[in-house]
Amino acid sequence: MVSIREAIAADWPAVWAILEPVFHAGETYVVSPDITENQAHSYWMEIPLATFVALDDDGTVLGTYYLKPNQAGGGAHVCNCGFAVGERARGRGVASQMCEHSQSEAVKRGFSAMQFNFDVSTNETAVRLWKRCGFEVVGTLPSAFLHPRLGYVDAHVMFKRLDAQQALPADAPKVS
Fold first, then answer.
1. What is the count of structural domains for the chain?
2. Tens-of-pLDDT digits for all 176 residues of the chain?
3. Shortest CA distance to 172 belongs to which of 103, 110, 113, 114?
4. pTM confidence score
5. Is 147 contained in some domain?
6. Which domain holds residue 93?
7. Among 72, 123, 141, 161, which has the highest number of CB atoms less than 10 A from its own CB?
């Protein structure tokens, strides 16, 4: 059983243990592969509106995600998330559960849509998962990502309305 809760400061060492190999591999995130732990902490724990951890029954951190407005002002009703799952927890549905949780959390916080700005096309597992979770590729950026092994590859912009049954009302809440 996986539980998901908002991250606390004491979670950082476990979160960093998940993020460090992902960031340093340079294959999926548009951060420098040389990112320091302090820079990663700011990026993942301080800048976002909220950061969450997925835990197994014994409290081990299996994965993490952040939630933040995708843009300011007139774009603040659309959120953005970043996800990472620990190597040993992959293939257990953790990312799928975090994605579902993130959508529910986004709605609670007043967001009406979610956008992934830069999904590297070669991260096929993630692209498939996001599609299964209802996201659509709304644009492809040709050769936008310099993959350390494959050279220049495409990146996708993926989008999902969180209330697909209704158009946004003119007085939709703005998230600041």
1. 1
2. 899 999 999 999 999 999 999 999 999 999 999 999 999 999 999 999 999 999 999 999 999 999 999 999 999 999 999 999 999 898 889 999 999 999 999 999 999 999 999 999 999 999 999 999 999 999 999 999 999 999 999 999 999 999 754 444 444 444 43
3. 110
4. 0.89
5. no
6. 3-116
7. 123
